[in-house]
Amino acid sequence: MKKVLITLDYDSSSQKVAERGFTMAKAMQAEIILLHVISNPTLYYTGYTASFIGMMPLQTKNVDDLKTVALNFLDKIKHELGNEGIQILVKEGDTVDSILEAAKDLQADIIVLGTHSRKWLENIVMGSVAEKVLKDTSLPLFIIPTKK
Q: What is the CATH number of the domain that holds 77?
């Protein structure tokens, strides 16, 4: 395994996911890419997502501003991991499609992602990203449970 794609959202468990993925990649001496997908810009403006990254809801509906915030978030995680060689990537679109597309484009060997313990209604409405990625990929997955 030479490339590890670590997918992160703004959940408070993202640091845990990044650390576990980083430890695995480091043990394999693999290249590391951190990915964040902007899938629903409306959530960023309502404060739902903003609360996870310690910021106020954005006053603009400019996707470029969202990308800048996401890049800063990933850069912060990269610095906390202590490895400046980590690549960061922000994509926009459907979360599952964007993860799979990034894995293919980057020729990743494994995808690391966290799975949240959400309420049953949220799972019905939003679905499970981990479950959908698992269903649609031929790559190995390293799924980190992030139950609080």
A: 3.40.50.620
